[in-house]
# Entry
Amino acid sequence: MTTTARAQGATVWLTGLPSAGKTTIARVLGSRLRAEGHRVEVLDGDEIRRFLSAGLGFSREDRNTNVQRIGLVAEVLARNGVLALVPVIAPYADSREAVAKRHAASGTPYVEVHVATPVEVCSVRDVKGLYARQAAGRLKGLTGIDDPYEPPLDPALTLETDLQTPEESAASVYAVLSARGLV
Ligand SMILES: Nc1ncnc2c1ncn2[C@@H]1O[C@H](COP(=O)(O)OP(=O)(O)OP(=O)(O)O)[C@@H](O)[C@H]1O
Ligand SMILES: [Mg+2]
# Structure
């Protein structure tokens, strides 16, 4: 195997509302990066909640704990040359800030991407039926509806996915990585 791809890792955190497009963009981007020879891990919120964060709920404290655990794993991977793609809601600014600081402390690149799909569009996409369940009174504490989402104030990139295809959104993230010399 050739080792032309540089072993510079980074964490790319895709934050946004449920159904914003985080997982879709991470998958498209991940495929492209793997095809180019990069080592890639996608740390998806749903999978993580089944093992690393099993037992955690959706209180503010548990949501923060979930994000810190994922942030720790991402930082370890990124520090060791992996591109860690993290499509996780991460609704609280202070939680994301702590993850960014953890990366800064080890000099590991951290790229925050706001998947800024308007809630009106997310609730129509409703990939997992969460918005419908909330509207029917069968779910409480849905981020962006009856639980807070604190949008990033200074993300590396903001994606308007209602105006783009997933491929275009993934290409925008790729361009940021490229501009920073990470790919
Ligand atoms: N530009 C775009 N980028 C990403 N997804 C898009 C875009 N345009 C349309 N979509 C569609 O939006 C939906 C997004 O679903 P996805 O599961 O990726 O959301 P998510 O942010 O991961 O949600 P959750 O937080 O519930 O996991 C998909 O059906 C996808 O095809
Ligand atoms: Mg997802």
